[in-house]
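Task card 7
Instruction: Convert sequence to structure tokens.
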Amino acid sequence: MQAREEGGFLSELRDRARARPRRLVFPEGADPRVLDAAALGVQEGLFRPVLLGDPDEVREALARRGVEPEDPAVSVVDPADEARIQELVWSYMERRGDRVLEPGEAREAVRDPLLQ
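Output:
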């Protein structure tokens, strides 16, 4: 009986996720486990992944998992993109308010995929 209840619970969670898919950010976008999870989420309509990593590498890996590389449900963000890093530096410094941070320190901080 326990297995049936768990199956019902998981089924209910999936139904709720499909009804209102959320965006989930994966900082380790090229990790095979992350790619497997992202592909499953897209194929089942559970969430819209945002994968951080080399765009060509990530899209190629998704294609091998049966996800159309240009699927609008999937976003791929290059954490090494200089224009994006510069934008994040100023945004990060602005949000820190009165806690003074030098641009070099902010640049180093925003290069961390967990902060992007």
